[in-house]
Amino acid sequence: MEQRVLGRTGRDVSVVGLGTWQLGADWGDVTESDAFAVLDAAVESGVTFFDTADVYGDGRSEQLIGRYLKDRPDAGIFVATKMGRRAEQLPENYTLDNFRAWNDRSRANLGTDTLDLVQLHCPPPAVIASDAVYDALDTLVDERRIAAYAVSVETCAEALAAIARPGVASVQIILNAFRLKPLEEVLPAAREAGVGIVARVPLASGLLSGKYTKDTVFAADDHRTYNRHGEAFDQGETFSGIDYETGLAAAAEFGELAPEGATAAQTALRWIVQQPGVTTVIPGARSVGQARSNGAAAELPALPQPTLDAVRDLYDRRLRASVHGRW
Q1: Vertex 156 angle, CA 151 and 159, to 5°
Q2: Does the predicted TM-score (pTM) go above 0.90?
Q3: Which residues are paired to 79 by β-bridges?
Q4: Which of these, 166, 204, 266, 307, could form a disulfide with 303 (CB 3.0-4.6 Å)?
């Protein structure tokens, strides 16, 4: 699989990575055996980038990855985790002492002395603007607790603020065919600054797979049930903040753009991979088949310009009014 340098880390990572939120919680139950099978399938497909967080299953996702890599020390996996969401979202909680405690927990979960990359997990805007926060992160690098740090954001304004910081290695942001605003300023700014871009929610929580209908029922512990209107966390993390019925109609139209031999989901991933400035995209997978299919998207030919134009037209007609201004 194609590898790209992840911003200021200087490390190569696969253009299609693996998001592991689903291995922890919030997507329904995933057994340990299923989780390890997904990790195996991703690695066999050429994935070298795992994205996780200390809050996914309250550490379960990190622990599963740590156990997996203990048995696969030569897999060459770069692990990006996140911190901050286990505490009340107050700027005063983002201190060096707390960072050390959070890091200690993640290092234990992942079974490593130095974390490859730690991302602030969608913190309050005041945290992203704080000089003291970046001083503390620099201290963690000096102490070799972490090799590099980054910021996961909700808005384009937050992304631009993080990119402007000289120590930020990468920025993680929602980017998909239903969420185009980052293309305008964020990706060009990241390219100019040498900051990596990790694209999350690439399938709009599965909408872009084209597999859902108005009658689809998600489990009670699936965020697509309990967070459709932002009841638990930012609404943009669920279906990219799009009204479900609006998203279904747009997804049906998007599916018609898939080239012969490719699924709608693979087309959605291929679209992200070829956006200038994107380093890696992190779809999740709950099955071996999904993990393999995601990896295969990296091998698809580049989408032709008429397809790219059609994606823009679909967004402008159906989604811009409800999505563009909010995020």
Answers
A1: 25
A2: yes
A3: 50
A4: 307
- 96-133 tens-digit pLDDT: 999 999 999 999 999 999 999 999 999 999 999 999 99
Rounded to whole angstroms, how far apart are CA atoms 17 and 317?
A: 31
Classified as helix, coil or strand, 275 is coil
Decide: 295 and 18 in contact? Cβ < 8 Å: no
For residue range 283-307, list pLDDT tens digits in order. Answer: 999 899 999 999 999 999 999 999 9
Bridge partner list, 196: 170
Query: What is the Cα–Cα distance from 189 to 31, expressed in whole angstroms?
Result: 40
CA-atom Rg of the chain in angstroms: 18
82, 50 in Cβ contact below 8 A? no
Count CB-CB contacts under 10 A for residue 306.
9
* Contacts of residue 4, Cβ cutoff 8 Å, sequence gap at least 6: 12, 13, 15, 196, 279, 280
- 141-193 confidence digits (pLDDT tens): 999 999 999 999 999 999 999 999 999 999 999 999 999 999 999 999 999 99
DSSP structural state of residue 14: E
**3-state DSSP assignment of residue 227:** coil
